[in-house]
Input
Amino acid sequence: MSDTQPKAAALTITAARVIVTCPGRNFVTLKIETGTGAGASYGLGDATLNGRELSVASYLTDHIIPTLIGRDAHQIEDIWQYLYRGAYWRRGPVTMTAIAAVDMALWDIKAKAAGMPLYQLLGGACRTGVRVYGHANGESIEETIAEAQRYRQMGYTAIRLQAGVPGLPTTYGVSRDKMYYEPADGALPTENRWSTSKYLPSVPKLFEAARAALGWDVDLLHDVHHRLTPIEAARLGRDLEPYRLFWLEDSVAAENQANFRLIRQHTTTPLAVGEVFNSIWDCKDLIEGQLIDYIRTTVVHAGGITHLRRIASLADLYAVKTGCHGATDLSPVCMAAALHFNLSIPNFGLQEYMRHTSETDAVFPHAYSFANGFLHPGNEPGLGVDIDEPLAAKYPYKRAYLPVNRLEDGSMTNW
Ligand code: EZ4
Ligand code: CO
Output
């Protein structure tokens, strides 16, 4: 840049710190401060990685924050590249969650400086609201359907169904707390049991009963949570075709993206994957090969808004839509960021929405709201989420792990 060009006013980063709080579950939040006196501002970023919270807190505090002080908060892309390329060690959930937190906070700051809700800066709203799906679950098919009916009454037009598997004491997605499913349940990992042969026949029965009870004017989804082999997933997809699922999620683990080629060859059930992905490289082959229909990468675990926009743009070329992860372990800061992002991109698909507890909502006052099956981020400048720090301080960190999973013969398998 030549010296003769006028320089835009910088927003100098003066401080940054990590806030860890446990209002029912652990959340890690990055707060970045800019300017001084009357010109002071701040932004928030979610840095929560379920069961590994303190690793991200350390990555931020010990390695990232010292490099941020004095930088211009307006230079979001340059800071992203600095943290990604500059670290030499790239990718991975801890790194990418930390980068995401910085990125979210910087977008929050920029949008506050512009006096606009973030979606305006991202190009403006492409739709009137963000359609979401809720989670209906129960020990039995009947209980799950009764829950789904409750979600219908609340206005949801898309519902994920998870039911207990006969012969297994517990399974993923089924909980006592109906509105806030929380899988991180122990100070040491709980050991669960898994049997694919017990699970596989139970799912088509659930969806057959659900269609009979709920009709066809509602979108239904199911999460396999990485538990099948490709050929088992192919068979499940085929068995579910009569019930027209909106998507079948994480039917196999996807370190090997080619797994999905086999599933795709056998079924027209739409496929979703990606909540554990942390970069565009994890989904490049899936997208370019048109092996999936929905990409579930989300703001907090995939490098922030800056990186998620890149993933969504690639996906759009191949008619793949977004379906951002939105479980309770993603804080209201991430939920807000996802809503601004969802509102602004052309290829939005559907947003997961597990509600937070009232304790969490009180720690993170927010402008987003739910009505008639849709969320809207609201029109506050920035992300529209704050953190009540004195209240957050009343909930100290509590170690909590996600469960692990074993087959009935004791072998470790995917949870
Ligand atoms: O297991 O967020 O679709 N939602 C999910 C979640 C994940 C948790 C892991 O932290 O799969 O329930
Ligand atoms: Co999932």
Summary: The radius of gyration is 21 Å. The pocket of EZ4 (ligand 1) is lined by residues 50, 183, 223, 225, 275, 325, 327, 329, 352, 402 (CB under 6 Å). Residues 93-114 form the longest helix (22 residues).
